[in-house]
Design goal:
The complex is a heterodimer. By secondary structure, chain A is α/β, with parallel strands linked by helices. Chain A has 14 helices and 17 strands. Chain A has a 7-stranded mixed beta sheet, with helices on both faces. In chain A, helix 2 packs antiparallel against helix 10, helix 11 runs parallel beside helix 14 and helix 12 crosses helix 14. Chain A is globular and about 75 Å long. By secondary structure, chain B is an alpha+beta fold. In chain B, strand 1 and strand 2 form a beta hairpin. Classes of the chains: A alpha/beta, B alpha+beta. The interface between A and B is medium-sized, with 18 and 18 residues.
Chain lengths: 404, 159
């Protein structure tokens, strides 16, 4: 994998910030887009655009074909059995809310228990809280160790005859922890409990296989994997999607409408009301092509090497603590510098052109667990380099110097 | 961006390391706490107001350098002033950091507080600078606690 050649694909990486070359280390928040994906979306608008699915004219047929082709690309990317198991949404958050409404509101009842983990992003907490409040259901939380690893014995002990759902992150956005989701899903299935996996931080960084994981639902976002914002995916096993109630009502998700009675469409259309983000879906398809050409395994290997290098360099620094030290992680480095608030770290690094994220990372329960208000988080992608890690370390030293 | 560097140089080297008026006023008759849960800035203010004048004032804080330094400079600026003057400074400071007052070209009484002028170019840090001033206003108006989030957000459109 030639990182210099890859960097040349990303025009934004040439930007200067505060008189310095941009060092973009905020990929867990959002990733950058290669020219090929930008070009594909421009070509759609220049030569292919029309509304999809119902007209008989040339552009509509073409737009429909490209939109459905993007769906098939996602199917293959995930190794799903059928393309009708792929629903396009606005992003991971919407995907999870869709399952909450479509499955949760239809099948969860008073007294039922929903298991979440201590390292979830708010998107995989709040919808379940809303559901629990509405239904009188109970949330149970899998605790984690000081290293940020879920305690599997305690996870297993949470299951009882009232357990009806497990909602779990594949990878933690705040800590980088990769959860043993295949084993945890298998355990849940032994108890007849369906599983939703939040794959926002996993899908961009490693090969994902729905047949291997056997989860019931999987959600991820386009903009975290070099695609545009405004598009995401919900994968669901066909038999579950078929029995779920619709999420949004409107056009396309119906077969027939009268004021007396409306019948709903089959999947996936049942869950795609209104005109979808066509251009963005095609952009997602293009980003899947781009990443697949490099190879998700190659991306995984490269990023793991970068993580190891960064972790090593950071462990040489005194007064700097890494938060999230699980044995298996993606290339996310949350850290704190003693005596310096994360906000100040971020602002001073920004003056060096370095983009990291500071705050609670939409994971306030994680912050509370570690007894801190916020962390500084550097998150790497396959277009970051060792030199950029060195610049980050230099920046951290500069911060320490300023505050000494 | 050089404004930001200057702010940090002057502010951090001085007020964050050696905050002025740090502590608690024993016979305080005004208290307030300010808290920004989204970033973790936290400040406790205590003061003694006699005959409409802020006789003594102190703060304890657990926040970023900008918040701490703003609190430190604020206590120095309002100690000994009458409440009305202090409230005027609250408003001028808020207007300066939100960009609606140009401290160099419009009348004001900010003096050394002008060093926070650069914060207006970093919207994400404005709330850090404002929190101590919001807290002062709350204490002077006998409100026990305040925040710079939600309805109290000084930067959003609906404030």
């Amino acid at each position: 994998m030639n990182v210099e050649k890859i960097r040349a694909d990303f025009p934004i990486l040439d930007l200067q910030v505060s008189g310095n070359p941009l060092v973009y280390l905020d990929n867990a928040a959002s990733s950058q887009m290669p020219q090929a994906v930008i070009d594909r979306m421009v070509r759609y608008q220049t030569q292919e655009h029309s509304n999809i699915h119902r007209a008989v004219h040339y552009l509509s047929e073409l737009a429909t074909k490209e939109y459905e082709l993007a769906r098939v690309k996602v199917q293959h990317f995930l190794n799903a059995k059928e393309s009708r198991e792929i629903i396009f949404t606005r992003g991971t958050t919407e995907s999870i809310n869709l399952v909450m409404h479509g499955y949760g509101r239809a099948f969860i009842e008073k007294g039922d228990e929903i298991i979440l983990s201590a390292l979830e992003h708010h998107a995989n907490i709040v919808p379940w809280q809303m559901l629990a409040q509405e239904k009188g259901a109970v949330l149970r939380v899998i605790p984690m160790s000081d290293a940020g690893e879920l305690l599997i014995d305690e996870f297993e002990a949470l299951f009882n005859e009232k357990t009806k759902f497990l909602a779990l992150s594949h990878v933690s956005n705040a800590l980088g922890t990769i959860n043993p989701v295949k084993e945890m899903t298998a355990f849940a299935h032994l108890h007849g409990v369906p599983v939703l996996l939040d794959g926002a931080q996993a899908a961009p960084h490693q090969p994902i296989d729905m047949q291997d994981l056997d989860c019931d639902f999987y959600a991820f976002s386009g903009h975290k994997m070099c695609g545009p914002t405004g598009i995401g995916v919900l994968y669901g096993k066909a038999h579950l999607l078929e029995k779920m109630q619709p999420f949004q009502g409107g056009g396309d998700m119906i077969l027939s409408v009268t004021f007396e009675k409306t019948t709903y469409n089959v999947i996936p259309s049942k869950f795609e009301a209104g005109t979808p983000p066509i251009m963005a879906a095609i952009g997602l398809g293009s980003s899947i092509d781009y990443l697949s050409t490099i190879g998700l395994s190659n991306i995984e290997t490269y990023e793991q090497n970068l993580l190891n290098y960064a972790t090593e360099r950071f462990s040489e620094l005194s007064g700097v603590r890494i938060i999230g030290t699980a044995a298996k992680k993606t290339a996310v480095l949350s850290f704190e510098i003693s005596g310096v608030h994360p906000h100040d770290i971020g602002t001073i690094l920004n003056a060096e052109g370095i983009a990291i994220r500071t705050g609670h990372h939409c994971a306030q329960p994680v912050m509370i667990r570690f007894g801190i208000p916020a962390t500084a988080r550097a998150s790497f992608a396959f277009y970051n380099t060792k030199e950029e890690v060195d610049k980050l370390v230099d920046g951290v030293c500069k911060v320490q110097e300023m505050f000494s | 961006m050089t404004d930001m560097r200057q702010l940090y140089q002057e502010v951090i080297l001085d007020h964050n390391r050696k905050p002025r008026n740090f502590g608690v006023i024993a016979d305080a008759n005004r208290h307030a706490e300010g808290h920004n849960p989204l970033c973790g800035d936290h400040i406790k203010l205590s003061m003694n107001v006699l005959d409409d004048r802020i006789e003594t004032i102190a703060f304890e804080g657990d926040g970023c350098a900008i918040c701490n330094a703003s609190a430190s400079m604020m206590t120095g600026a309002v100690k000994g002033k009458v409440v009305q003057e202090a409230e005027m400074l609250v408003e001028e400071f808020r207007n300066m950091v939100t960009g609606s007052l140009d401290p160099d070209n419009q009348t004001n009484h900010l003096g050394k507080l002008k060093v926070f002028g650069g914060v207006k170019d970093l919207p994400s840090r404005v709330k850090c600078a404002i929190l101590p001033w919001h807290t002062l206003h709350a204490a002077l108006n006998a409100e026990a606690s305040t925040s710079t989030e939600g309805e109290a957000d000084p930067v959003s459109d609906h404030a």
